[in-house]
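Hi R.,

Here's the chain you asked about this morning:
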Amino acid sequence: MFQDMERVDTSVAVDLDGARAVWFRMPATTQDPHRSTTQANTIGVSFTGHRDAVVERPSGRRDRMEVRPNSLFVTCEEPFDWIHVAEPYEGVEFVISDRLNAEIADTTGVALDKAVGSFVLDPDPVFWAASIRLRQHATGARALGDLEGDELLRAAMTHVACEHYGGRPSRQNARPLDGRRLNRVVEHVDAHMGGRLSVSDLAASASMSTSHFHEAFRRATGLTPHAFVTARRVEHARALLAAGWTREEAASEVGYTAGHAFRRALQRFGGP
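And the predicted structure, written out as tokens:
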């Protein structure tokens, strides 16, 4: 599970495999010099609406706008500062790495860091749902597993590229993972299940690009990488419990703490 979470006042940052995600809740920003910055290559959601927000570009130009609740925003190459927001605000931002930008471009034909268009878009229920899931994790309501976070991130970014910028998923994803590559993935999972596993790690073990690995794996196994890894972890934990290990010891050995997420995984994949 994620260990690299940092809490500062009203924000929580989580490092995903390809992006840094931040959930934040902030007071109104109405007077200089108090301001907040949205970095370049950021895609996010403003859960709160703003009727008279003002942002400032690096050039010094200021724009006044209305932001609808749950609006999607995309900065591409240009960051901006929020210098006047009359209401308290809450949102989630995903700051995308160059590597993930390249993967999405390879998969969809759209380079999100170079995309051109209005940076505040209409509300998007798919990206909103991904942001809500990240918020659940950030606020401690429901933990987000390592691979689940990677899958959520890539699905959300692929959706934005296709839905808002005309991208098309690659046809290469239609081929299932062959047995030799799948065996290498399983060996990697079994050898590292007590630590953090990422989609890019699994793709590398199969000698595939991350952008093509996820669907190829799902077609071969019938499970997403996250579900497969969870099942392997649970199976190993059950064997340890049967051998007399305590719940705390077994959970730690397979990358969990002995809390609700571990109990839920046992119930989902291993029975009561």
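The chain has two domains: 5-165, 172-270.

Let me know if you need anything else.
M.
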